[in-house]
Request: fold
Amino acid sequence: MRLIFVGAPGVGKGTQARLLQERHGVPHLASGDLLREAIEAGSRQGREIETKMQSGALVPDAWIQALIFQKIEALGSGRSFSLDGFPRTPEQAKALEEMLRRAGQAPVDLVIDFEMEPEAIIRRLSGRRVCPKCRMVFHLTNLKPYQEGVCDRCGTKLTTRSDDQPGTIQKRLAVYERETKPLLDFYEAAGILRHLPGDLSVSAQYDAMIELLTRERLVGAA
Ligand code: AMP
Reply:
């Protein structure tokens, strides 16, 4: 199954994509993680990406497309994937469609939009903690690590993402409304857009997602 997860920052796209990878073997491709890896590589482009990310703006299409298309091409034609954070604009969506067509790869099956009110998003992002090493995501109240402040998976000290500061959160939400929301019309017109509530516990959101994927015959009924 070839999926796209859309929704404002903090709605649970990454957490659900990771669970789908662990439990159903669907590779999770997160544009934000690819950009953070590029920053860590320390190149000049990495520094420019960091400046954009910290301001809450999107990075130029050509940069993110180069990173994500390389991963999709490496997966090959028949492989499943979930794209988390890409595409973020109608232009990126058209570029993805074109890339899959040119590479002779299967198109996207379904786009899942995680819906959530801005006040709830701000609460989510303010409590989010991340592992800088393996990129696992936790939350101070909703998704606590076993040991406070420490990653369950690799034992690294958890941090707050530099773009999860209040001013930057507001900017990212505005960018989402202005640049990413139009993407929903694009996929609605294609007939592959579905919606799920974002403001659920991790397990309730996962169950709702699996129910949807089962209804769409993308995973087998239990
Ligand atoms: P995320 O981890 O998905 O919240 O992304 C963090 C930041 O990376 C965003 O605020 C953007 O600056 C950048 N970014 C991630 N995905 C994209 C994309 N598809 N297009 C442009 N910028 C992106």
The pocket of adenosine monophosphate is lined by residues 9, 31-32, 35, 52-53, 56-59, 64, 85-88, 92, 163, 172 (CB under 6 Å). The chain has a mean pLDDT of 94. The chain is about 50% helix and 15% strand. Residues 2-215 form a domain with the Rossmann fold fold (CATH 3.40.50.300).
